[in-house]
Amino acid sequence: MKAVFSLFSAALWLPLVLPAAEAKPPNIIFILADDLGYGDIGAYKKQPSKIPTPNVDRIAKEGIRFTDAHSPASVCSPTRYALMTGRYAWRSKLQQGVVAPWGAPLLQDAQYTVAELLREHGYTTGLIGKWHLGIQWPTKDGQPAAAGEDRLSNVDFTQPFKGGPLDHGFDHYFGVDVPNYPPYCFLKNDRTVGIPTLPDTGRVDGFNRPGPMMPGWKLVDILPELNRQAVSFVETSAKSGKPFFLYYALTSPHYPVVPAKEFQGKTTVGDYGDFVFQTDWCVGQILEALEREGIADNTLVIFTSDNGPEVTGEVKPGVYDRVQQYKHHSLDGLRGAKRDLWEAGHRVPFVARWPKKIAAGSVSDETICHVDFMSTAAAIVGAEYPADTAVDSHNLLSILWNEKLGRPVREATVHHSGSGRFAIRKGDWVLIAHIIGDDNRRAGEPEWMKKQRGYTAHDQPGELYNLKDDLIEKNNLYASKPEIVTELRTLLEKYVAEGRSTPGPSQANDVPVSINKPLPKQPGKKAQAARS
């Protein structure tokens, strides 16, 4: 255990915890899709979906569907950090963007994670899939890898790496760092599977960054192998008799969009639709494994996405292209997309099934966030955790079990964009905090969509929307509601200054955090296309 416990516990933060008399703690499976849109799942569509998602729909039918769930950020790495720690990633050194290829570990050595918490309470813990929280790679000359150096010649792939899943609470790991980041090979526990020896030059068949590669490596083979490993982990863990935690971090439908041959042509939304269909099939394989092993009734299964859907790019067509070409709305009418502070950047599908505890067919409009997972997991096992842990995490058991608290679980939720900008949501109101001269509109948003929606009041020094009346964030009320702007701005500043958004002693952020950061210059088309 990396942290010294205080008297703070899950029971002190919120009143609901799993009864001590429960015969056996539940297995917990958290399935995280990558760049999946709110409008990509059938259970969320008012009309029949063009992409069949029967397995995710089944979880919703047999459990609960959240209509107002949010990723902690609108890009990948910060969401994964918050999911693991119960702490917003903007409190860390990652103030914008994602962990770069070959980037150093984002999780500090002393950072307490949900995997560590569950392992300390008797769980077998496993991560299958995408990591993207940084790895400390061993080098042949013993010096830390420098930015831009030739990793093929200096990284020593015969030695174990540090800072990965095994150093942060997981007993087992199999996956990739990022599919389109080198090294192009599988990772198992703390080593590469084989020695990547081929130099990839980049921008070929979806490999948009140069780096060492395993002979015969194919992107299309990643997801099928991850699914085999995830099913095997469930089966092996079930036979052990111990409770288990599986964090299944899918690499789909993130670019590169590479549906396996047996899924090609299964939808009317091109390769993207087929890749989402394959993603849903992977979920179904997990559900079937639970049934085969006889453990489905005592397993909490959660399915969601790490952020909203990809926009567009030179080599990776995105959501606006799908609207025009296939009439498929990954955004489901919401404004924005991945990287944005608008709703489509972070409002994501979120469904959960736990037959022993969650009533089938439940629907909740409670505002929740992935950062809440750690406090919820702690409550399930009755775990204590330190006062400096899970500082932004709230226990969601009251919602899952349909217990009435008489108040929202979350006072407010902070959103963070790919460019490092802030927004805060409280009740029906969301404030997008930026200063005069900043522009929250993204270059990828086409003119036809701007004209179609008729957005108003772009010249104000911030954006304020009432989501109950204006879910598509069309009418900016910043100038007409100064009292709400002040209230939300003050609360956001409080959350930043106190190092937490939950009750408890103030904590220090890892680095100074500024709400009024100027937006970075928009990248050109070539640079945009190369991003993760």
From TrEMBL:
Chain positions covered by the region annotation Disordered: 499-532
Signal sequence annotation: 1-20
Pfam families: Sulfatase (PF00884)
Keywords: Calcium, Hydrolase, Metal-binding, Signal
CDD domains (UniProt xref): ARS_like
Domain Sulfatase N-terminal: 26-382
Entry-linked PROSITE patterns: SULFATASE_1, SULFATASE_2
Gene Ontology MF terms in the entry: arylsulfatase activity; metal ion binding
Positions of transmembrane segments: none
Superkingdom assignment: Bacteria
Family named by the database record: Belongs to the sulfatase family.
Protein name: Arylsulfatase A-like enzyme
Organism placement in taxonomy: Bacteria, Pseudomonadati, Verrucomicrobiota, Verrucomicrobiia, Verrucomicrobiales
